[in-house]
Amino acid sequence: MTTPELPMLLPPTKEESPSPLRVSTFAKPEYADLTFIYGKNKAGSATWPVHCKEFKVRIPTGRQASALTSEPALIRHELTVPAGKREWSVDRDTRDPNQTVFTCTPPPGDPAAFDGTWQVELKLWGIEVNGGVGPVGIVWEESTSTTGPNGQYQGRIGRGEVSKRDDSFYLHSFRPASVAISRNTKPVLHWEGTANATYTLYYRKPNGTQGSSPATGGSWTSPENLVDDGSFTLEAKMGNEVRYLTTYVKVNNPDIAVTGITADGITTLNGAAHLNGATTTKNLTVNAANTLYAQTIEGNGTSGALKIGGKLTLSTAAGEVNVASKLTVTGVTTLNGAAGLNGATTTKDLTVNKANTLHVRTIEGSGDYGSLAIGGRLTLSTEGREVNIASTLTVAGATTLKGATTTKNLTVDPGADGYLWLKTGRFDTAAAATVNTFGPLNAKGPTALSGTISGLFPAVTKLAWNGNVYSYAVPADMIAVVRDESGKKQFINSWYGGVELFNIGLDAWEVVCVPLRKGAVFQKTTTAGNQRLDVWLFHVGAKQ
Length: 544
Known about the structure:
It contains no helices and 31 strands.
């Protein structure tokens, strides 16, 4: 039957240096110090004083990770007691290859009485820590009594632990998980290194600047997707030592940004190629002896204009050039063959030599109103052909119409010189045609009207006024015929803008004719009541 262990009455305080302990390597042995302070603290179940005959410390030895040292003979020890206390003795027992036991005892026949005011201190130093990483268990034993120096002494056991860590600084095997990755994916990197070192990865960010990111555990995933090849630098720090390793990752089908590129062989661009600059180092130059083949050439910018600063010669007989967007030519353009412009074209000047002919199906003006401005003389003289102008035709110079002309509207711009001038001849209309003038018609010379005039008085309105006062707001220019239907005198007047235009008295059955101005007020004012006055209003022009 196994006797249960009794807990210690005076558990020691443990101090270690360094903390945690560092394991030894072939290149560098590491040493440790352990200090055990006994008699300072007591268990909660104990009462002072506690008498002690013996205190032991068992240190595991060997090369295994659970042992502290494989060289127990190198351990040095010292036991310190306070002044005024009798010296203790220390015995080292190394007979067991798996442990070394240090036994501390007071003078024979004189057990120590610990009352919380003093303690003994066992220091072990020069301990060469073995190479195994891990925790090491340390066992303490005591022989103590709480019933006085002559009371019953019992063996009691306690346990403690120290940790051994590998602080050797090493770094190697820095490599990518895959040496080639797909475009726009994140690379993963691995390495082998000291666990207690601090690691930082340096990489190139998408904007071309250097980025950094902390790394742990021997593995790191880039925070950025790669679109081209990249190099990565791993920095490891431990104490005052710093080490670096670099690796490289290849990106399949990468984006390429270069200042200059020289291709001695054939260069194939399977995707879109963009030349983003306007300087000579960012131009695409094709030697004069070579040909640039392009299915589509598009301009840039919001309007998509294609600008050609020099001469553009399109002379391939079997080829066709289609310009789907705006073509802007700042220099001379020579078209040696027939040129078909199927869409809208904006140019500064389009010059056709006198010996040649410009064939156009449609000419449209530009701007918000689509006006076509011709600064010089435009001669349309080809017989058998028709010229249709769908928008406004603005002519700043002289215009000669030698033949019959059919238009929907012919507009003359108003102004000091804005008039339609018939130098000779006359202005005729067909028999069934009508001439409409929506503004004033001024005839400065003799005017002969050989036909009938219609539409002068297109509408007549009659008013019957019975009473003393009536008022009428004149909506348009008109002529009023007024007759006094009573046997007494009545009065009419007209006001415009606060000014009286006329004031007329009518005798019984008298008839007068007066003009009325648009915006005026036409009134009847009669002192006698219930006198009738009839008014006929003749509208001048169209009734409004």
